[in-house]
Specification:
alpha+beta; 5 helices; five-stranded antiparallel beta sheet
C-alpha cells in the first residue's frame, strides 16, 4: 500500500524544513506538532539516525469538515509530514489523505481527502518548482 507522497530536494535539511513550513502555510496548513526524531532517539536511546523531523500539519477547515463526517477521524489527524536527510538530499513525504477514506470506508470523506491531497501536492510542487 502506498501511503505517502514524496519529493526529493537538493536543499540542506534546515532550509528544507523552513521551506516546507512556508509551503504548507500557503495552502492553509498550520504546524500543530513537531517531533525531532533524531534528537529524541539520541536522548532516549543513545542511537544515531539521519536528520529526521515529523511535522503534524493541520488545515482547520478540512479537519472540521472531516470531523463532521466522522468524529473518530481525529485518530488519523493531523496530516504527518516527514522531512529527512537521505543520500545528500532532503526527502519530504506527506501522508496521503486518501488513507482516511480507505481506512474508514466513509465515502463522505472523499471530497475532504481530495481537497487535502490537492493542497498538499500544491505545497510539494512549490518546493520543487
Amino acid at each position: 500500500m502506498n501511503y505517502g507522497i514524496p519529493v526529493t530536494l537538493d536543499l540542506p535539511f534546515a532550509e528544507a524544513v523552513e521551506r516546507v513550513r512556508a509551503a504548507l502555510a500557503e495552502q492553509g496548513f498550520g504546524i500543530l506538532t513537531e517531533i525531532d526524531v533524531q534528537a529524541t532517539l539520541r536522548a532516549k536511546l543513545d542511537e544515531e539516525i539521519e536528520e529526521y523531523v515529523i511535522l503534524g500539519a493541520c488545515n482547520p477547515s478540512l479537519a472540521h469538515r472531516a470531523l463532521e463526517v466522522d468524529r473518530r477521524i481525529g485518530l488519523l489527524l493531523p496530516c504527518n509530514v516527514v522531512v529527512r536527510a537521505a543520500d545528500g538530499h532532503t526527502v519530504v513525504e506527506v501522508m496521503d489523505p486518501q488513507l482516511m477514506v480507505r481506512v474508514t470506508e466513509q465515502p463522505g470523506l472523499e471530497a475532504v481527502a481530495d481537497e487535502a491531497v490537492g493542497r498538499l501536492r500544491a505545497a510539494l510542487g512549490a518546493l520543487v518548482g
